[in-house]
Structure formats: C-alpha cells, structure tokens
C-alpha cells in the first residue's frame, strides 16, 4: 500500500494545461474560488499569504480586491504563471514540507490554502507554520476535497486515512491523501486553530450553463469540496 504522497511537484507536469482549465472551469472558477474568497472577507489593505498558489488565479482576484499578496508553490512553472498573472505579488518556489523560513512570525493578516492540504504527508507541521506567520486576529481559509465524495468514489473504510491515486479527465495522474473530516478538524486543532465556519459550497448560477448535470448534483450531494475558516486559538 502506498503510504505517502512525498514531495513530488505533481502539477508541474501539466501546469499550463491546468492554468487554462482552471481560469474559467466549473469547479475552480464557479465553485471553490467563490467559496474561499467569501470566507476570506474584505482583503483590502491586508497582506495575504497564498500557499500552494498554483497559477495565481486566486492571487489575481485578491490583488484586484486590494490585497498585498505573497505566494508560494512547489511547482516552478506554477510560480512563473502566478507572477505573470499577478505581477504586483511576491511569489517563490517552496515545498510546504519545509518551514516557511522566509516569513517572520506574525507577518501576514490572512492565509489562503486552497485545494492542496491533501497533497501533504505532514499536514499538522505545515498548519503550525501557517499559524506561526499569522498576525493576532488573522485567519486561515482552506479548502479540500469533500471526504464524503472521496469515500463515495473509492469505497473502503471512510475513517482510514490513505493515499489515493486517480487519473483525471484530461489524463492528469494525481496522488493525494483521502482523510475523514474528523482528521482535518483534529489537524487544525493540533496546529493551534479553532474553526469559525465550515462551508459545503454550492456552484454559482453561472456554472449551470457549463454543466447542468454537475450543477444539479453539487446542489444535492456532498461530492465536491468543502471550505473552512479558522482562527488562531490564542
């Protein structure tokens, strides 16, 4: 059994394809991004750390809303794309398996961690680093695959944390951790966070024109993503 994802920059192999797909794609543009941005709230004048920033789609929207964005990703090509899309941001290649040693304590107002938690083997350690760099009164917004959806697709023991390998519709091969919701809540608590809000998003109305079937399904079944806003516990 595979018991680790490792530190492979999986998205490096299809970074440009993903950027094109995600810019206006159903799950990214009309499902996850709106949910995360809503949980972040007013970002004007705030310093936002966008970890696992991908091609900069969230970062560009944050900049447009008045934020100062700092971002990182394990994929060098993703970092290049993010810098092109949000040139006022500061982006660097960084493996979240390592400390954020380039960021001082209490140096950002908000952290966005969208759809990447499941690619980390030591999630509590990474979350503790995000807690460290947050200023008092700050918040972390993270999204992840909905654990119920993972279980419906793969079966087995819902409560067992395990590594899944999938081939997505465009032939992209990915490996990630499927974990129960309980595990994510405990990992946040262990890292020093308390959950303020948990959202099971619904697609925007515009998504219905892209895929009526997926739109209807995600309005009745927990098979997509979920999003959490958490604050430091002290």
Automatic annotation (TrEMBL):
The organism's place on the tree of life at top rank: Bacteria
Tagged with keyword DNA repair: no
GO MF annotations in UniProt: S-adenosylmethionine-dependent methyltransferase activity
Classification via InterPro entries: Methyltransf_11 (IPR013216), Methyltransf_Superfamily (IPR050508), SAM-dependent_MTases_sf (IPR029063)
Keywords on record: Methyltransferase, Transferase
One Pfam family here: Methyltransf_11
Gene Ontology annotations of biological process type: methylation
Domain Methyltransferase type residue range list: 49-142
Keyword hit for NAD: no
Name this polypeptide is given: Methyltransferase domain-containing protein
